[in-house]
Amino acid sequence: MKRYFVLAHLLLLAIGALISCSESPATPNSAGNRQDVTLATINGKPLLLSDFNQYLASFLDGDLEEVNTVSTRELFDGFLNQVLLLREADDAGIVIPDAEISGHLEEWSLNRGENDSAEMESAIRDYLKVQKHLKQTVNGTFEITLQELINYYDNHVEGFTVGDQAHVLEILCDTREQAEEIKARINTGDSRKFREMAHNFSRGATAEAEGDLGFYQKGDLPEEFDKVIFDLKPGEISAPFQSMHGYHLFFMEEWIPRHQYKFHEVKGEIFRRIAAEKERQATEDYISSLRNQYSITIYESRFPSDIKEHRFEQDES
Q: What are the distances in angstroms from CA 279 to CA 1, 13, 275?
C-alpha cells in the first residue's frame, strides 16, 4: 500500500525524517547489509543508504510504476537538496508551532495510527521549515513589471484562447415520468423557472446550486452527455436522458463562442505564472549556491541502477 502517495509532491520536498549523520563513514555490517553504505558525505559527515531508504519509504511503498521514469540518482539529488535546505532552516532558527502541524494533519486526514502520525508529523514539520526558510530567503526577491506581463501575453496569446463553451443546468430525476412532468412545467427559455424546479425537485448534487453544472467545452463530458447537451440551442431543454444515475433534463442557459481573453482578463493569471517561474529559478539558484558552500562528495558507484533494485535490496535486508 502506498501509505502517503497522495502527498508524493510534499514528500519529494520533505526529507521524511531527521538525517542521522555520524562523524565517520559507516560500513556494511557482518551480514553484508547494504543499509549502512555511505552514498555521500557533506563536510565529511555521511549520508547513508539507510537514510535514503527511509526517505524513499515515505512515498514509494507498493507499486513503483508511478516513478519508473525517475532514476534513483535523480531522487537522491532531491534528497540531498532537502538535507541542505533543512540544515539552513535549522541554522536560521526556523520553528514550526505544534498547532500548525496539527492543522495540516487534520486537513490532510492522515492521522491513521500512532506510528504513521509520528512519521507524518516529522515530515510535515520539516517540509514547512524548508518552505518557510525559502519564503524568507528566496521569495519576494524579484520584481515583475507591467511590460513583462504584456510581453508574456503577446508571446502566449494562443494559450489564452478558449473554445466554444456551454453553460449548462441540470435536473436529475428517478423516473422518466417525473422528468417529463417537470419539463412540461417549464417554458422554453425560462432559466429562472428551470433553476427553481432544479432546487425543489432535482436529486442531483447540484440541486442546492439550482442545477448549475457550470461551463463545459465539447469533450469535457462523457460522449453520451456531449451528444445531448451540444445539440441544444440557448434556452432549450433536452428530452429526458437516462444514465446510470437516473433521468436527466439539461438546459442550455448560455452559449459562449470560441474567443480570446483580453489582457486585463488574464493579467492576474499571467502574474502568477511569471512569479512561479521566477520563484522556481530563484530556488534553483539558491540550492546551487548552497551546494557550492558545502564540501560534498557523492559516491556514484554505490548507487543501485534503478529504484526497484534499490527497494528490493532494502526489503531483503
A: 34, 15, 6
- H or E segment to which residue 285 belongs: helix 263-293
Q: Name the E strands within 207-295.
A: 212-216, 241-243, 246-256, 259-260
Burial 254-282 (b: 16+ CB within 10 A, else e): eeeeeeeeeeeebbeebeeebeeebbeeb
- In what side-by-side order are the strands of the sheet with 296-298? 45-48, 38-42, 296-298
Domain annotation for the chain: domains and CATH numbers: 5-140+278-316 (1.10.4030), 164-257 (3.10.50.40)
For 82-92, write each residue's pLDDT tens digit: 899 999 999 99
SS3 176: helix
The whole-model pTM stands at 0.57
- Between 114-137 and 72-91, two packed helices, what is the crossing angle to 10 degrees? 70
Amino acid (1-letter code) at residue 280? R
How close are the terminal C-alpha atoms of the chain, in Å? 20
The beta-strand segments (E) located in 133-257 are 161-162, 165-173, 212-216, 241-243, 246-256
Residues 104-130 have pLDDT tens digits of: 777 665 444 444 567 777 878 888 899
| Nearest by Cα to 60 from 129, 4, 141, 137 | 4
Distance CA 288, CA 284 (A): 6
Sign of the C-alpha dihedral computed for residues 28, 29, 35 and 36 taken in this order: negative
